[in-house]
Amino acid sequence: MSDAALSPPEVTRELARDHGLTDEEYDWIVDRLDRTPTFVELGIYSVMWSEHCSYKNSLPLLKTLPQEGDQLLVEVGEENAGLVDIGDGLGVAFKIESHNHPSAVEPYEGAATGVGGIHRDIFTMGARPICALNSLRFGSLERPRVRYLFDGVVRGIGDYGNSFGVPTVAGEVYFDDAYEGNPLVNAMSVGVVEKDGIASAAADEPGCPVYIVGSATGRDGIHGATFASEEISEDSEEDRPSVQVGDPFQEKLLLEASLEALKAGVVAGIQDMGAAGITSSSFEMTASSGTGMDLHLDRVPARESGMTPYEIMLSESQERMLIVCKKGREDELQEIYGKWDLEAQKIGEVTDEHRVRCFWHGEVVADLDPSHLAAGEGAPVYERETERPAYLEDTRSFDAADIDDVPPETAADALLNLLAAPNIASKQWVYEQYDTMVRTNTVVGPGPSDAAVVRVKDTEKGLAVKTDCNGRYVYLHPRRGAQIAVAEAARNVVCAGGRPVAITNCLNFGNPYKPDVYWTFSQAIQGMGDACRALDTPVTGGNVSFYNEHPEGAVFPTPTVGMLGIVDDVRASVTAALQNEGDVLFLITPSTWMHRSEIDGTEYLATVHNRTTGDAPHLDLDEEVAVQNAARALIGDGRVQHAHDVSDGGLAATLAESVIHADGLGADIDLPGADDHRLDGVLFGEAQSRILVSVRPGDADRVHALVPDDAAAHRIGTVTSGGLRIRVGDDTVIDLDREAIQTPYREAVATAMTAEEPADGPTG
Length: 764
Prior knowledge:
Helix content is 34%, strand content 23%.
């Protein structure tokens, strides 16, 4: 036994502050215990009451989101991930989480362990992960430090996912100065489980033995949950020990062993050890079950000498699970994990005393009521002050008339600039580092599609999956920007041939103690709720990541949406690539309009004019529903050859991408002109609820019959064998060959990353 274990530091108010607890929270602890907490107990409270684990500043608002639906198999927060019934006796488990702060100080390991952690959440449900997605945000690629972070994150995601053997099939990457110093790294996993094989994080039966399985416990990741609940600062490099280290090969063994143990029926309850390690697993399992646990920490396999009970309880070492074994099946459990060369060590048992007691060589070092620490039960809950951000007065005063419209003769140059903008340009440099086809179920992967499509084995079904959020929109109009995040994610799923059914979310915001940040957060939650109700896509769970700030300020508020859709027949899935010369192009819009002249909040305004201002683009949720229903009707009828939603870069960029993804095809487009529309708004405006589709010439007359009255189908052009030609009224404003539009689009990101080698260290 170490001297530190024998003589832990004296617990004081000052020490509690150092652990991230407020004076008020420390007083609550002392009052509840009627004594000063032990050092181990203080550590337990500090992580369980951290924002990361307790959702203490977000829970009241999260409860306002729609969380019910006929296809949902578990309640939000009940298990490690959301679970949706897709028929055929199958459920889909899916979830998205952040690993922002770890990736800011250790990009490779931070991103890698984010991937590992989200996959464990899925197979802890008894589901086998079938695909992974991500959502990434960085500062400008012109900066060596950003290139270092970007390179490390992508390699970390690729190396872990490729080694683990699950394809990374979709994602998004945005670059903006707002993310300088605090990148966002959100990882999503999707898995399939037979409904009669769903596992639970339960500890229902007193007397059942408790095992820790998987990797030995080390000192990596201690206070990782607390680290994720504070702002990034110049001192954050000192928090590198708070970043976990992952081993994908060990995780693969843990996956197979755990699924075998579940199938064998020897497991009564199972919980991933993510944030806060043994602490969160034991307290969450017992709190939800109304039971207790006795844990003998000196029995926990350790890979480092001299570890104290405090370190063991707070370690976030990866590739570990806490398992409640069925009584009498202990030998079977150990045999299964042993077969996979993993240790299964009994460290305690479930009790009926509603206490989690931690022992160290027979001495009690912690004795706590789990309900006092659980989110939504005994953990503190706050509703913070709100104040509308002052910057909105400036951004909303923007008048597009102060910016010259693009002349017809330079419209092509503006389009090429947009295609070379990192936010629009191809992300092939990223996804070529990912194994997108492992397990051979990927029907449509990254690149020429608005959403990925993955086959569900032994059925005709597929899953259409997408992550989405434009933080710039949320910055300019928090409520509408969050509506757009949900609407566009659903629109992308529709364009791939899917039916949107549910979302998971990862809510990335600044410091909730700042009234303007909390106002933005509350508005975004309202917007997300609006859109989910309109589109009938309930929220199944997710993650809140606050404190995404750095010395220069907060990131753009970024409520990332992970959308799940069902494709009834994968053979009918659709991509964003033009298919056949002679096909007719239609623009599906709301019934009342085709063009809007706004350039507010657009990539065009940011790239060409270097301004992030104005309002978020137009969105009406009733219009959005109408357009998505129209597109689904057309795709379901089997008429659609290609589909691509209008988003970043506007209609011109959408048309260019459709050409770029095609095999030797182009497009000849005629758009109506109007004196009251700006040309740059017609070409590059990002008003929502528009989908570009193509059909065979013989099906063109059928399109209008299939589109309901609350939407419209505008015939705008033809698929050709040439490049991209766009006429607006009487003017040919864009006339570019395929190579001209392909080159900047395909080379921009790769050139930025290879023109100068990424910096080789954290200070870049």
